[in-house]
Write a structure and sequence with these properties.
By secondary structure, this protein is an alpha/beta fold. The chain contains 17 helices and nine strands.
Length: about 375
Amino acid sequence: MHPSPFQRTPLAAGPAFADRTAELARVVHAFATPGSALVLYGPRRMGKSALLHEAARRVSARHRRVAIVDLATAVDAPDAVRRLLVAVRGAVGHTWQSLLHAVAAKLQLSVTLTPNPDGTSLPGITLGVDSRAAERAGLFTDALVAIDAELNRRKLQLALGLDEFQRLLAWGGDDVEWALKAALERSSRIAWVMSGSATTLIEDMVTNRTRAPWKLADHLRLGPVPADEFAVWISARARRGAGRIPAAVAQDIVRLAGPRTRDIVTLAHATWRLASASRSAANALTAMDDLVRETSAPYERAWLQLTQREQRILRLLASQPEVQLTAEGIRREHYLGAASSIGVALSGLRKKGLLADERGQPRFDDPFFLRWVTLSST
């Protein structure tokens, strides 16, 4: 079987990147303009990280220094600083070791370089951080300022991407937000692109005049790729993989999995794989059902951890997406209890990441979990 033309992991790049021409051009421009700042935000799985990395790849091809820092899984500020230094090291080239030590000295941190056993890759970085420095709200932003100062001294420029940058607020709240503002204002050598999926929080940060980043950075909300364009792209990619997904099936893929980019590409891959393996006509719904059955274990675990009321709400939303859950007749018919109890259950489902709000109506966050609930209810 030919390799799949639909790249899900690692991040899609090159021809496998779902073409976002205008958005990509804007991020590339921001990366190529020292002193500029762009905030890229939108719901999870919409393709922000892939867009950030594809823009970085294209800018790197122009012989510019680019560093991407993934803050999504950083556990605290010192871990975030370590990730920052590792990323900058990879970007600045032969001067990285002296720059690293200069930045660490300004932050009053100790740095230990651990050689890799193979002797071919760069050594690992371990930071020594005392308790006072670890608890300092502005530790990460202090590191940004120190890096900018060193870049200025060495007359170097850097394009810096901070993925899930809103995580910084978890380690310092408003103090970090204002410290980030100060770092952006004084930066002359760094081109900033900050991306995040906390849509409501970030939208308030960039549009509310009382928040620190207001009018300091341009902002770009990443929405869905238009359905017709995505369907055309799916059919074209399938042909490159020596397979075939007709236009009607591609439209089914977008409808069933939409609106988030990663979900659509995941279903496109499953549909292409099924058609290639069975040498039969591509069918998006059959592929989705096969995929859901293959990956049912985490859905089953999540389901068993829910209350009966939460389970009833999910089954009702799966069969009637527009249902008004608090309507008296609905509450009685489906044993949902008082409106206040429904509110508590919905809040819990949102916190678990199972539901999201769309124009005031709760929706399944994961289309594959939605399909699992539908199949398990029959």
